[in-house]
């Protein structure tokens, strides 16, 4: 399937890209090459082949899924430069 420069211009206009004539010609050739590679893949006979599972997802180590309690409020408030009771005290920014 050949990609024409008119098709490249149309897609560029939809993407609001401003391409020079050289860029249009280069992109038409690149896109044509990509589509021909996909056509080659589509022509392969894959009957009888099982689908491949994603290798990177299946072998990824997982951390245990469990609830973790946040640190105690007193431990957090000890680090505050200023507090009022059990609340952080910050300067007023809206009058």
How would the blueprint of this fold be written?
Layout: H1 5-14, H2 21-42, H3 55-58, H4 73-77, E1 83-84, E2 87-88
Helix pairs in contact: 1-2
Distance between the termini: 67 Å
What is the H/E string? HHHHEE
Number of helices in the DSSP assignment? 4
State Rg.
Answer: 30 Å
Mean residue pLDDT:
86
Instruction: Please give the share of residues in helix.
Output: 40-55%
The share of residues in extended strands comes to: under 5%
Low-confidence stretches: none
Strand line-up across the major sheet: 1-2
Number of strands: 2
**Overall 3D form:** elongated
The biggest beta sheet reads:
2 strands, antiparallel
Features:
mainly alpha, single chain, 4 helices, 2 strands
